[in-house]
Every structure is written in structure tokens, then in C-alpha cells.
Design goal:
It contains 20 helices and no strands. The protein starts with a helix and ends in a 7-residue tail after the last helix.
């Protein structure tokens, strides 16, 4: 029975991985994140009910809790939730910190669902075949999303009611965003999904599948270039370097070849991809016609957004020094940003207000205080310890899987130094965390006992818990589906 439930949970997660990035509400205007987050929360609530029912009794659930160690990922995520809760309680805008901003919805409520998603994911024993299925879903998704982004850049759009985050002109939009709602989200998705492509390439594949993977790499690279996402460009470079270095390091045969054939092999691949990108840019720039001269003029902008970022970093640091312990609460930076004086140069470049600090560490410190920041750092330290042990003690296949996840996380950590988290980044991040966790605890999994044979007194308590949770889930489902509906019919949108 447990195996059947595990399969149901895995295929539900596989469906989430395919549907959520592609989901578009053409009547939702520019708030793409609202519908995706609502669907994500709804499905996570279903997964939690399935897992609670699978545990069978309160004693089994309590037994799993008692097995937790203080410095485990589960405990650290629990501490992070406590930090979020305290910062929300003392927030300068409790409502925004709890539910999130109207077009972000990234408050405590959503963060709680991400932690629950990780707890559900970590209970799955990922086999190599399942990891490959997950990787192929990301490859197919990224291919479709990248093609759509390239078509958008050439002015081919299928959804006429969509409002673009960036400026729209006659022949194209300046920065395509595909189905993800923002060019930066698109860049982050392509960076964090690139590790899956590399993982599939180092495994034995049929020739036509390898050719398809190379095609996807080229298409994704073009789409990433068009996003003009500098953090994404750096993240993609770091992802590729980390994957190549770690894979060369764990394979003794490749260590011998690294000075000769291996370098030549990868140089050929890089040269081929570079040649394909040059061909695309030549077509896009108008060397062969097709109105490229007009499109190229769209990308010429005076000033740089990095100038604004540096001003925001300086301003956020001044705010942090005023409340360094518990912060100001999640999703509240926009209330402070409107008070920051604007320079004349900044007004010319971009006079919009920032709703986040475009840096993971500064944004966390501002929102949660130094305690929350230290807990987040501890999460990555613990993850690094797990990765180190896996690369030294596990079998080759496990090492390949962990290298895939590690390289994608490395790219993520680079890109969030210039941007901030979104649904798609944390969604993929929790999947990568759970994959590493499962490889680490492959021989330490605690299974829930079955309670099908008889119902003991403790089982009645578990039934009560499931009933209460089901009521909460139904309420959450109503709220999340209402969010999609209201986002569709309201110009400004509302949630509850």
C-alpha cells in the first residue's frame, strides 16, 4: 500500500513540475505568480493530507518527529518557519507579511507551503529512473518555454490579453518572459534547469536524444540571452563550471583525460553552441533583413539598473542597522522603498519602486533579522556537509545525481545575488534539496507503519487529525481557487 501511495505522490509531483511553469491565465494580466502559487499551494495541501493518512496513527507521526536531529534539514526549516512567524508577528505590515503582496503572494503562508512541500518530497525514495523522468520533464518544459520566449521577442504572441512587465513595442517586447511572468523568472528557471540537461548528457542516451538535448541547450541559451538577465548569465556559467569540475573530479578515468581529449571534446561542444548563437544573433540583428535594425534599437537604454541596485543595497543596509534582530517582516520592503529619495539619474533609468531587495542575504536580513539570516546560512552549511559525504562515499550513479542538484543550486546562489526568489526558484530548489536529502538518507528512511488491520485508540486521534486537516485543506483550496478567480475578474486583484 505504501508503495502505491508513494507512486501516486511522485506522479502528482511530476505533474506539478510539468504544469506549474507552463500555466498561464490569459485574463490574469501581469500577475502570473498569483495563479501559479495558488495552484501550487492547493496541490501541496492535497499531498500533505495523503502523507498524514499514510502515517496511519499519531504514534507513527510522533515517532518520526522524535527521530529528528537538531542540525537536520527538517529542524533547520522548522526554525526558519519560526523566524518567519516572529518577524510576521512584529512586521510593519502584518497582512503583507502573512499573505504576501498582491502580485507576489510570497508571505509566511506561501513559505509554509514550500516547507511542507520539502517534507513531502523528502519522504520519497527517488530511484535513478524517477530522477531521469523528472529531468526529462524539466528538459521538455524548458524547451517549450524557451521557444515561446524567442517567439515573443520576434513579436509572435498567442495571448492577446497579457500585460507585459517590460515595455512592449511594435515588433517585439524588450525582454521576453514566456509563461513565467518576468524575464528574471525565466532566466532563473533556465539556469536551475540546466543541471538536469547536463545530467542526462552524461548518461547513455540514444543518438537522437543526445542531439535533442544539444538542441535544447542552444535554444535555452538563446532564450537566456534575450532575457538580458545578468544574474542568470552568471548563474548559467557557474552551473556549467561546477558540474564540469565535480564530474571530472569524481571520475578517475576523466581525471587522466582532463589535459587532453576531455578539454578538446568540451571545446568542440562550446564552439558549436557559440556558432549557433552567433547565427541566431545575426538573424535577429537584421543582417539578413526581417526588421532587425528596429529590434536592435529597442535594447539600447541609457544608464544601468545596477546603479539603482547599489542605491537599494545601501538604503537596505541603513534600515537593517535600525532593526537588526527580527527585521521588518517579509514582503514589506516596498513600504520602505517609497520613502527613499530618488536621484535624477535614477528617475531617468527607472522610477519604479522596489518591492524586494535584489540580494538574497540582504533581503533575508531585512525581512527576518540576523537570526533568520543565520538559520538560512546554516541550511546551506548542512546541505554542503551532506553533498561532501555523498561525493566521498556513495556509488557513481548517486554522485551524478547529486552533482546535477549541486550545480543547479550553485547557479541559483549566484543569480539571487542580483535578484530575488520567486515561485519557480523555490519550487525547483525544494526539489533539488529533497533529491540530495534522499541520496544522503538512502539507508536511513523511516517508513510509516500500516494501520489497516485494526483501529486502536491512538488511531482515533489520527482520524481526528486527518479530519481537522481536511477542513483546513478545503478552506485553503477555496482561498487558492478564489485567488485565481479574482485575479481573472479584477483589474487590481484581491485574495481573501
Amino acid at each position: 500500500m505504501d508503495r502505491k501511495i508513494d507512486k501516486i505522490v511522485f506522479y502528482l509531483i511530476l505533474g506539478m513540475t510539468f504544469v506549474i511553469p507552463l500555466l498561464i491565465n490569459p485574463w490574469g494580466m501581469e500577475r502570473y505568480e498569483v495563479d501559479k502559487i495558488a495552484l501550487f499551494c492547493f496541490l501541496v495541501e492535497i499531498l500533505v493530507v495523503i502523507r498524514l493518512w499514510q502515517c496511519g496513527s499519531f504514534s507513527n507521526l510522533w515517532g518520526k518527529i522524535k527521530e529528528l536531529k537538531f542540525f537536520s534539514l527538517e529542524s533547520l526549516f522548522g526554525l526558519l518557519l519560526i523566524s518567519y512567524s516572529i518577524s510576521t508577528l512584529f512586521s510593519i505590515s502584518v497582512e503583507d507579511s502573512l499573505w504576501g503582496l498582491i502580485d507576489r503572494r510570497f508571505g509566511l503562508y506561501t513559505i509554509l507551503h514550500f516547507v511542507l512541500f520539502f517534507l513531502v518530497m523528502k519522504s520519497i525514495k527517488f530511484k535513478s529512473a524517477q530522477v531521469k523522468m523528472l529531468a526529462w520533464v524539466f528538459v521538455l518544459n524548458s524547451f517549450l518555454i524557451s521557444i515561446y520566449a524567442i517567439l515573443q521577442k520576434f513579436g509572435i504572441e498567442f495571448l492577446t490579453n497579457v500585460r507585459y512587465v517590460t515595455l512592449y513595442q511594435d515588433l517585439s517586447i524588450i525582454r521576453p518572459m514566456s509563461s513565467l511572468g518576468h524575464p528574471n523568472y525565466l532566466g532563473a528557471f533556465l539556469v536551475m534547469g540546466s543541471g538536469f540537461i547536463y545530467y542526462l548528457l552524461i548518461n547513455k542516451q540514444k543518438l537522437w536524444l543526445k542531439l535533442f538535448l544539444y538542441l535544447v541547450m542552444i535554444i535555452n541559451g538563446l532564450a537566456l540571452y534575450l532575457t538580458l538577465n545578468r544574474g542568470g548569465w552568471l548563474g548559467a556559467l557557474v552551473t556549467a563550471l561546477v558540474f564540469l569540475i565535480l564530474y571530472t573530479w569524481i571520475d578517475p578515468q576523466r581525471k587522466v583525460q582532463v589535459r587532453g581529449k576531455l578539454i578538446l571534446y568540451y571545446l568542440k561542444k562550446v564552439s558549436l553552441a557559440f556558432f549557433a548563437i552567433i547565427i541566431f544573433i545575426s538573424v535577429f540583428a537584421g543582417w539578413w533583413g526581417m526588421g532587425g535594425d528596429i529590434r536592435s534599437s529597442e535594447d539600447i537604454q541609457q544608464g544601468s539598473s545596477m546603479y539603482i541596485r547599489m542605491l537599494e543595497y545601501k538604503y537596505s543596509w541603513q534600515l537593517i542597522k535600525q532593526s537588526p534582530i527580527i527585521g521588518y517582516g517579509p514582503e514589506t520592503y516596498i513600504h520602505q522603498s517609497v520613502l527613499r529619495p530618488r536621484t535624477e539619474i535614477e528617475k531617468i533609468i527607472d522610477d519604479r519602486y522596489s518591492d524586494r531587495v535584489h540580494n538574497l542575504w540582504l533581503d533575508t536580513w531585512y525581512s527576518l533579522g540576523i537570526v533568520g539570516l543565520l538559520i538560512l546560512i546554516a541550511v546551506y552549511i548542512k546541505l554542503g556537509q551532506m553533498i561532501w559525504k555523498i561525493l566521498h562515499r556513495s556509488q557513481m550513479e548517486d554522485k551524478k545525481i547529486v552533482i546535477m542538484a549541486t550545480s543547479s543550486i550553485a547557479g541559483y546562489l549566484v543569480l539571487v545575488q542580483l535578484h530575488f526568489d520567486s515561485l519557480i526558484t523555490l519550487f525547483i530548489l525544494m526539489i533539488l534539496f529533497s533529491i540530495i536529502y534522499n541520496r544522503y538518507n538512502a539507508n536511513m528512511r523511516i517508513t510509516c507503519k500500516s494501520s489497516e488491520s485494526q483501529i486502536d485508540p491512538k488511531a482515533y486521534l489520527s482520524i481526528l487529525i486527518v479530519i481537522v486537516c481536511s477542513v483546513i485543506i478545503l478552506l485553503g483550496a477555496y482561498l487558492n481557487l478564489s485567488a485565481i478567480y479574482l485575479n481573472t475578474i479584477c483589474d487590481m486583484g484581491c485574495f481573501y
